[in-house]
TrEMBL record:
Name of the protein this chain belongs to: Reelin domain-containing protein
GO BP term, example: innate immune response
Bilayer topology annotation: Multi-pass membrane protein
Keywords tagged on the record: Antibiotic, Antimicrobial, Immunity, Innate immunity, Iron, Secreted, Signal
UniProt main location, coarse: membrane
Cofactor section: heme b
Source organism, top-level taxon: Eukaryota
Residues annotated as domain Reelin: 72-237
Classification via Gene3D superfamilies: Reeler domain
Amino acid sequence: MAECRAEADLDDGVGGAGGGSFVACSLEVKCVDEWLALTSSQLPGDSFLWSITSVRDVGKRILLGVNLVIFVSQGGILPTGAPFSTCLTMFPKHGAVEKQLLPSPFFISLSSNTYTPGQVITVELTSTNGTLFRGLQVKATRSQGNSERAVGSFMVSHDNKTKAFTCDGSYKSMATHANAADVKRVVLKWTAPRENIGDIVFLATIVEKFDTIWYGIKSTLRTASPSNLVEQSKLPELNSSMDDVDFSSCGSEKSCFLYPRYCKSSDCLAAASFRHVDDMFLQFELMAKNVSYISIGFSEDVKMGGDETISCTADGGVLSVQHGANPKQFNDRMVRDQLSNLRIKQADGIIMCSFTRPVMAVTRTVNQSAPDLQFVEKVFDLSKEYHVMLAWGTVKLGTDVINKHVDLPVVTDRKVNFQGKDIYRGSSLPLEVRAHAGLMALAWIVLAGITTAMSRYYKDWFGERLFFIGLPLSRLSYLRRLDSSSFLFTSMDWSRYV
């Protein structure tokens, strides 16, 4: 018999190396025919022979399509580098792991203190004491102006340790690791922009091991011609002072989404208001209690995925308003150049912010599989109706990097008309889940309970009538359980498992 073996395609999805990590893999079994042949030869009698062919076909489909979650040790992980969604955050997706608070032993060394347009600069990442590291992210941004957009480009490395990919700004504008090998230093080649954009700051994050992250490593590259700069693109300024958000005028002067369902104003845990400034712009106000960020999302349905998001974060003195998109069940942060009039404050455990958004905005992500720079754009036109989502949670300590929301996002019961003045309510549980719970309660508590009580305590009283009453109730209970399960089955995003 041929040797049995299994091949697995691994995707760590964390953008870092080392440590124990759960890794999703698709397992392809190469010995299905041999295994089934051996099994069938050992079956007693001939009663199973008629189904061997069917079993083989079904077995192949089941085994070839099975999805496993396996624990991979520190030495066994096969990382593919930082994901695109960390382009702006520069923080690996390692769950609850925080950055190191001690001074970093790692630093960035540049081959020149100044640059001219198009010049190639050698960028070296190493440590003061020879400490080994496994994961890295490094990019360059403007020192002044639009500091969110990456500039310049990294050349493809031939050392098999690093690779470059495109962030929202320029081609191959971020470098990251390509494997989990321990190294003492990494040397990269970076090409400066073709225009003199002023001083440039290199930013790096080093992953020493899975739970040891060195964040915010910087080095400045000066322009060789400070007096000969091209016009700087700028981000909207963030004002750290604002008046308290007034939700008492909801329904009369502006539309609001209030949560929990029966709150009115100051007793709400989270809320959002929106009104037209003019035909071209909408003003939004967000509020949440006892959290570090509040996010609003615009979605064509009640599920996460394919949405536009805007988030406000406040952790001590680190404040931000972020524009992003949810391609699927994760967030890609974008440059916030479509937002304006940004205000935010945090006081007495309450975070509040306001911003102006054009009626029509575009989310932009990068197709990393394309050989050339290729953006995937989606237009969100708020002259149309969308479901509004609210989510809240914490940020990484001392940063504006958002953690996964602490509760399920709440979604409006109906789509929002941004042209009107209304009060919207919502729930954190999708309609399918609420229907599932209601039907299960009806089936198990009401119908099954009545049938059981009748059979046990009223059998003599009902006599033969018990059969004609109990049987329909039992069947009805069974049908309600099927209906309940079908709600969850049809509401799942099965494309995630294909």
